[in-house]
């Protein structure tokens, strides 16, 4: 009986180790730099999430959806220019090329949080599950920045100083 118990315990240990290794491998190569959203203005029901996704793997992947609690729905969007007017459009996925990555930033691709149940408050975190075709689900915490946060202005100011 003792021998049977030891064998079962060993098999369970091997199985759990294999599952953990498989999960780490499925997300291998993806890194997420500076995930953030802006704090909500009074009465604002929508928000947008931004992140730099790096794909250090050997296969191109594709972000196909995102989910989080306390919102009506989450969509992937881009901004297109139609006759000089910037318009937001839903996309079915965002390619994340191998050896490169994808940038979700103001004026381009972003994650749209629609129907907020509560406003985004500066200093808090929005836990988001990103779903990729190959890597599967990856949990990423998006930092809520002040409503005035403008990374493009920060980059321009830094560029002018050099």
Give a short synopsis of this structure.
With 162 residues, this protein is α+β, with helices and mostly antiparallel strands. The protein has helices spanning 2-26, 151-161, and strands at 30-38, 46-55, 61-67, 71-82, 85-90, 94-96, 100-104, 110-116, 125-132, 136-145.
Description:
The chain has 162 residues and is of the alpha+beta class. The protein has a single domain, classed as Sandwich (Immunoglobulin-like), CATH 2.60.40.1890. Helix content is 22%, strand content 48%. It is built from 2 helices and 10 strands. Strands 1, 2, 3, 4, 5, 6, 7, 8, 9 and 10 form a 10-stranded mixed sheet that branches. Strand 9 and strand 10 form a beta hairpin. The longest helix is centred in the N-terminal third of the chain and has 25 residues. InterPro entries: LpqE-like, Lxx211020-like, PCuAC_sf.
